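INPUT
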Amino acid sequence: MSRAACLLVIISLMSPAAEALDNGLALKPTMGWLHWERFMCNIDCDTDPNNCISEHLYMQMADVMVKEGWKEAGYEYVCIDDCWPSHQRDAQGRLQADPKRFPGGIKKLADYIHSNGLKLGIYADVGDKTCAGYPGSLGYYEKDAQTFADWDVDLLKFDGCFMNRALLGEGYTNMSKALNNTGRPILYSCEWPLYEWPLKQPNYTAIRETCNHWRNFDDVFDSWSSVKSILDWTAAHQDIIVPAAGPGGWNDPDMLVIGNFGLSHDQQESQMALWAIMASPLLMSNDLRDICPRSKELLQNKRIIDISQDSMGKQGYRTAKGNNFEVWERPLSKNRLAVAVLNKLETGGPRGFNIGAAPGWKICGPQCNVTQILPQYKEMGVQTQQSKIIVSVNPSGTALLTVTPISSDFTRLHKLNWQGTFVRRKHTIL
Ligand code: GLA
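OUTPUT
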């Protein structure tokens, strides 16, 4: 290959596969809170007024987000999921919030959220009905987009239940256009590929042009097996989905369930670390009014959030697996690298892993600076390619590190090499 052709390949590998949806939003992975996994379709406000889907829930969550450092940490969107509307549209055919649970209506709720310096997300469905059986938007895309814009909504999660799979692309694209035509910037969160995979391999170029993020796989549950299945699916499909991610459009592996009931602390650290490596939206689904201090500290960990929000906006890959370890690596701005080592063995105690075996460690020639972020913050100082640093990883836990190359000459050369080899490399077995 000529030098020029080689450069072209490198440049194309350095930028995402396609143009992102051009609405100026989601230049970094979205951060916020989304009700679904924790509060589901609890509409029983008579017996459970504190936890039912009502305007109070979002107002209280917004209050806590401001008071308890969530907003300052970067969490910005307060998002409503399914079960908010009335079962009937109004006389003009518009969606309306359930009058008993949202007596002020969505516009008032948006005003409240905005007065706290936060943004409001809402939920609808591309088909006849939402997944929980509320009115769908099929046949009403313009009307619903305009209603959301009139209410000053900032994000739409658009689900894919009760829709002819062959028409998913058309439906998601038409809603994207309808949102755009309102003139209000509304972040567009899709589930298009998740519903399309059973039919055919989705067209991620079209998806990236249409949506700001997109769910690919099953709903997250509050369990380690669920988090693991999402990681496994992502790694198995990474050559298809990772190149589609970049500023303006992201793969969405679903909500963070940190701070709930099902994950041990090590597993919570694994979810946080891997969601940062995957450049995933960080949408928590938990009860911020009652969350344990360790989970809160983890979710607000600035060093992990900095990886998630890195300005280069490249999603990471699983680069190696073997001996019940997985190595995931994400290239960061300034030629840095984030490395996560996941211990998949769910028995025994902490196991040592030689971080020098991580494929990306080659950036340590001649020298690099290493910082461990999880399980504890530790400056590990200057290292070389020959260094043997053993990190200790608990069962189902993750060690997370950043690696900064030192020599600038090498850095420049490496950058080309790294970008060129990253997506093509086959998994190494450790
Ligand atoms: C689907 C989605 C979930 C949630 C529910 C609501 O299952 O994937 O994220 O929105 O519907 O009914």
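end of record. The chain has two domains: 31-309, 317-406.
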